[in-house]
Amino acid sequence: MPLSDAYQPPRRGLSFELFPPKQAADMEALEVTVQKLLRYQPEFFTCTYGAGGSSRDRTLEVIERVQRVTGLSVASHLTCVGATVEELREYLREAVARGVDTIVALRGDPPKGEQSFQAVEGGLRYANELVELIRDEHPSMGIAVAGYPEVHQEAPDAETDLRNLRRKVDAGADVVITQLFYNNADFFRFRDAARAAGIGVPIIPGLLPITNLAQARKIASMCKASLPETLVARLSEHDSPEWQFEVGVEHARNQMLELIEDGVEGLHLYVLNRSQAAEKMLEGLETASV
């Protein structure tokens, strides 16, 4: 099924993002998580990808296992970090051989300890170049790219950021999946500006429910996402893990319900390989309405 079909009415495509576990025991736990998430009838899963070979093999292992367990498509993330064009081609060939039909194409963040992204010799500098490579050599492959409701941290302004996004879409991307955000006004502003800039593909909000304030602050700082002061204040009322889970998930659920009411074409949930928060968010909803 073409990726864009997941977002055609009456579908409102639901997807979940996973990451490759480091331990074998965690891989078993991931299968349990995936089984629980299946009840919400996702269109597909995605799996992240480590730069420089740090988790590439595990990414493919996760993809094969989740495909086997679910019978669904599992999209592989792919970045330009630390890879030559030939190494990217090699990964794509291997991914296709293992049944991958969708790529989440990203430039990628600088490796740990480095302040800025530097393409390796014989590599690619920008995500739109990666999209072009995939579209030229695997024309039937579904391609998702990233969008930034609060502007990419390296972009000087929102207008420049949108021009970069337009280049990725013009290169052949089917869908935009956004970075996490905690204020829906940021998403609506970004989506409206993208449409005005001529970006017509589905724009899918990415949500990460907060289950721990310290962890949320760390993740938000890494991607320059803002945490609403009122939400932080409420989360800070108690140190109890149960309190922070309930407050954070309630906020994410309210975000989701408002987005659905507004008519978004789909939802992408960053689940951090756990199902509890996503289950709580989706509790009581008809899958057709999700």
Description of the structure:
With 290 residues, this protein is an alpha/beta fold. The protein has a single domain (3-283), classed as Alpha-Beta Barrel (TIM Barrel), CATH 3.20.20. Helix content is 43%, strand content 15%. The protein has helices spanning 24-37, 56-70, 85-97, 127-137, 158-170, 184-196, 213-223, 229-235, 241-262, 276-282, and strands at 13-18, 44-47, 73-79, 102-106, 142-147, 175-180, 203-207, 266-270. An 8-stranded parallel barrel has the order 1-2-3-4-5-6-7-8, surrounded by 4 helices. Helix 2 (56-70) links the parallel strand 2 and strand 3 (73-79). The longest helix is centred in the C-terminal third of the chain and has 22 residues, at 241-262. The model has no long low-confidence stretch (mean pLDDT 92).
How many strands, what sense, and barrel or not for the largest sheet? 8 strands, parallel, barrel
Show unreliable segments: none
The proportion of residues forming helix, as a percent range, comes to 40-55%
User: What would the average pLDDT be, to the nearest integer?
Assistant: 92
| CATH level-3 fold name | TIM Barrel
Amino-to-carboxy terminus distance? 19 Å
Principal-axes geometry comes out as globular
Radius of gyration: 18 Å
Structural class label: alpha/beta
Secondary-structure element series: EHEHEHEHEHEHEHHHEH
Give a count of the beta strands, DSSP E runs of length 2 or more.
8
* Shape-level CATH architecture: Alpha-Beta Barrel
The order of strands across the largest sheet is 1-2-3-4-5-6-7-8
- Give the CATH class: Alpha Beta
Number of DSSP helical runs: 10
Number of domains: 1
Beta content: 15-25%
